């Protein structure tokens, strides 16, 4: 078998120690028929080995020093930074080179072995010498594994000198267009591990495996052995337990290749929902049945079919890709990553209910594909090209071969992508099948090619009606570009309804997974996204979850629950659809919790009134049905019902919230009006002064706007409201009513043509603002707004409160993230608390949730002041959004698509909010939810906003 030491940590620790002191000769662990891996470098970004290093230009250049390997040299403080798009600007394109030296010794016993040096990835042109002699031709291409046979160059039992020259810029023009001018950061260096691969002289060079869902196995074995007389195959589980011997149909094609056909019995298939894996063990045997060499490969049994004018099928099931694009990247290490990071990223994708990932725009680290195999994600594997001109054919053929040979056996890989966005060289399309025993289909991302249409960034309407490719399998390999806070979750609900219901749609891939903000070692370690080029992520640079993360999680939930509202007539029935591909719904469960928020002032404590497990119906994929939630006797005293779906692996699919009480019903149990106590009112110099319970309110006599709030001689800077948005009616009267237990200020606006004399609600026939002050200091506000049914612009009221005086907010409502009109899903109804931050999504701060913005389904909120006590507002009207301050706009949004215009004021209570766009589309191009028009009640059904303030 092949033992990679990064899978066996105790061995790795010993090995790294030996390598660091230049001693391999002490190792006696190699047996006669296995391959062993010995790292000359470290294994990842967190485990590097120092080599000697010289950088020709830039930081720390023109001197020999040390560098950790593997690494990108810029992140280690050498050379210069470039973003790919720098070629379009007046920025200098840096072309420094790096020189590496490393000494190591090997045991004498290796002289009878086959020894290769393997480079998993070097940027870019790589010249390798061992003991002063070239190891082979210069390798070109930054993202591909390459190796040299160094058996004849080694000094056995002695020190060996490895020398490597790495040119950051390739001498091949097409490589530079593909890799150096692309839309991502450009780095230099040996950024993936380097190791020695030590095998018997009679050995297997590589194997290519096709394991079908019905158990059929076809294997190509490429062997350097001339003594092989027979081959043995058997299947094991992942723990090495032998499951079955495999009968063989054996044929030898030429001297170096054997082809084997066999069939496994009683296997479980591989798919993202149930990623069952096995070990295929292969043994070369001589004429005496002695093992010459043994290797093993981890495989999954699955069948992929791309059926023209129909769909993409895996194991007979037609697939909808719920995918994302992902770069191999980490802020402090560039393209050098780790197995732990790969696992973390795959788990986050799975947590968002994704089932697919596209490798943008180059093959990833091997450990990322291994994580996709074991945790379950479909993969599109891609070679690196970027627009025109494409890779030249000579170097392109080598790159395709290196990509397919390395990755051919991963069950997660469904498709190959021949470059990106017109960068494809059509002369390479048929080369994939030469090296791929599975003959997987080839895509041209952003193109109509063969059976597929992978258009990028279609608008909602173009996606639905692309008449140029109606008979193609339709899935954008990039859509909803997530620049800053736009895209991703915004518009996804609309797009997914189309994708799910269009027969020829195979889903799509969001752009992209994470903000590529790099640590600038030349600029005091700031995080740099190169303006708006790399701020595209669902998560921040270090995996910080943005709001879209949870929107995606809900929209792409494989357990789809129709929208539901709980009213007194609620019968407990929920309609559900199974949107899994391979899982029956009864393999999952739902936990139902009826919850009450405790405390007269809304503390964080909750009381669970009832908790039960809901039995889900027997529904195969795509089937619809119902489930019933038990209603306890006291269910109407609950504040909210939570439904948490749990998948067969015990992971949360999503938690849905269903408020039971209206805002007024809930707040009536919190707000305490007291009729006793002194309350005074007077009018002076155009101002209305009201004193109550140590609070002094000042209103304008002319407009009734709140001008000042002072409590115990401390000003609470909440004022200048309520201003009604888009309101031009003149004031007819302002009246002060001094009653026994309260004071009212009633403002009546003039009737207009919009408000006929017969229309009325309560006692008012036109727009009205009514303040009520109580003896205990509580302040009620009632606003009634009549007008047109369909309007553009904001409907609601606003106040001022200086941002500099705000320190945080605690609230009951949807959260903890802000929402946009076309990104409403992904929140949870509960009590939340956020500290003030000034995060500009994807650009600066990277503290989430963002503090400022629109928040839905407000029940109450406590705005915390810095130099004052702030205030609490209770919202007694349904479906009100809280606008909290004005987010800072990103610096680079030239088309104003992801910068949303906010209304006047600082704190607003409104009935409608705007949509947000993407880098390439405005919100109204992204589906019905992005429409800027709003439907409201007219004169006989006005907008009502009822609030209670507690200072």
UniProtKB/TrEMBL annotation:
Stated name of the protein: beta-galactosidase
Q: Which family does it belong to?
A: Belongs to the glycosyl hydrolase 2 family.
Catalytic activity from the UniProt record: Hydrolysis of terminal non-reducing beta-D-galactose residues in beta-D-galactosides
Q: How does it assemble?
A: Monomer.
Q: Which part of the chain is the Glycoside hydrolase family 2 catalytic domain? A: 307-429
Q: What is its EC number?
A: 3.2.1.23
Domain Glycoside hydrolase family 2 immunoglobulin-like beta-sandwich, chain residue ranges per copy: 203-302
Biological process (GO) annotations held by this record are: lactose catabolic process
UniProt keyword annotation of Hydrolase present: yes
Which UniProt key words apply to this protein? Calcium, Glycosidase, Hydrolase
Q: A Gene Ontology CC term for this entry?
A: beta-galactosidase complex
The Glycosyl hydrolases family 2 sugar binding domain covers which part of the protein?
Answer: 65-199
Q: Which residues form the signal peptide?
A: none
